[in-house]
What does this fold into?
Amino acid sequence: MKLSFLDELLEESAKADAAKRIEMSKIRCDHALQTIAVLENRIAEIENLADQERVIIDEWSNKETAKLQGQIDWLARQLEAYVRSGDEKTINLSHGSIYLRQGKPKVDVIDMEAFMQIAEKKGLLRTKPSEKLPDLNAIHNYIRAYKLPPPGCSYTPATTNFHYKTKGKNDESKTEVGAPVERSSEAEVIA
It folds into this structure.
């Protein structure tokens, strides 16, 4: 019977595998376990060394990134000062754009008892079938009308936020946001 090339390879492989096998006894099993333990310790040493190297690399990366982020923050503050000094709210440039966007004012009911004393009279509640909840839109309208929040409410005026967008490789856009800066005049806060 003629063996195919694949059968011959399989037969040679089986013979080579049999030649590599160790004649096992209790002593050889014990030596094999000891060898496995040594190899596992070497693996642990390698992983420990790799962890130490990762810590060093992470520290270096964080340090270098912090330096670059500091430069980005400084440049962004310069861009923000420039856009705030002019009349334009958006400036589009070849490498990106800088712009100011108006945020939203925020109202929080911090003392429900004090709020509820006037809320129903002033129409500052929205009624669900089983409960009465503060109507934030009505509270905002109240603040615009009376120039101060109702009792039990806190009011955070809207801020004008600086944003910039850069165009990276392949014209991929990257957006970064600067810190909000509060409006300067009280008339703007209420309006």
Observations:
- The chain has five helices and eight strands.
